[in-house]
Design a protein that fits this description.
This protein is α/β, with parallel strands linked by helices and 227 residues long. The chain has one domain: Spore Coat Polysaccharide Biosynthesis Protein SpsA, Chain A, CATH 3.90.550. It contains 9 helices and 8 strands. It has an 8-stranded mixed β-sheet, with helices on both faces. α2 runs antiparallel to α9. The longest helix is centred in the first third of the chain and has 17 residues. The protein is globular and about 45 Å long.
């Protein structure tokens, strides 16, 4: 296991141009934990999250392009319309296999590409905040950003020539740290950390400012989820 390292502050930045790999389940299966809050609007919300995430990424100066790995034809068409390259999920073996497939496809075209995997459920994503995260990540072979809960991961980067080795899902913060990736501990980047799995998460994202597509649907969602 690699030694845990973290990076805080603004000291290490680069001008690397990144290709982001974004995975998206078929909309009929995506965001199942939102069912209680969103009801029949869940697939539409999952698509809105992805569209706002990709739009925010493409507006970031550090992002060269975005590759979306999905088998959903509706989502694929809309995301391609934004300017993303859409790949089918040929491994069909889960999230991390899809991300590794996307990274390989990117480097088959451009062997020297810097690649970062990013969640498709960041509907409040702000390009300037993503820029800070990617500039910092560029100083290291592999780096990651923990989610708002401090358990999962929203972004994992790999420098040119370095394998992405994604380990997303559940307590992925610990797995990525154990793999030797540097944890990025920047302040002031809440929109890059705020993934959305539940109605309560969506309320927190709304407090940051939702992207246009998610904002259109937000009024139909019953939040927060009180227990």
């Amino acid at each position: 296991m690699g030694r845990t390292r973290t990076l805080s502050g603004e000291g290490a930045v680069t001008n690397t141009a990144w290709t982001l790999v974004v995975p998206l389940k078929p909309l009929s299966e995506a965001k199942s934990r939102l069912a209680a809050a969103a009801g029949a609007a869940r697939p539409a919300l999952a698509l809105a999250f992805a569209l706002d995430t990709v739009a925010g990424a493409l507006a970031c100066a550090a992002v060269r392009d975005v590759v979306v790995v999905t088998d959903d034809p509706v989502a694929g068409a809309e995301l391609a319309g934004l300017g993303a390259r859409v790949l089918p999920d040929l491994p069909a073996a889960g999230l991390n296999a899809a991300l590794a497939h996307g990274a390989r496809a990117v480097r088959a075209r451009r062997p020297g590409a810097a690649v970062a995997a990013m969640n498709a459920d960041l509907p409040a994503l702000r390009p300037a905040e993503l820029q800070r995260v990617l500039e910092t990540a560029g100083a290291f072979p592999r780096a990651f950003l923990a989610d708002a809960a401090g358990i999962g991961t929203t972004l994992l980067s790999a420098a040119p020539g370095v394998e992405l080795a994604p380990a997303f899902g559940g307590p992925s913060r610990a797995r990525h740290s154990a793999s030797g990736a540097v944890e990025i501990r920047l302040s002031g980047v809440p929109s890059v950390r705020r993934d959305v799995d539940t109605g309560t998460d969506l309320e927190a994202a709304a407090a940051l400012g939702l992207g246009a597509r998610t904002a259109q649907l937000y009024g139909s969602v019953r939040v927060p989820e009180h227990r």
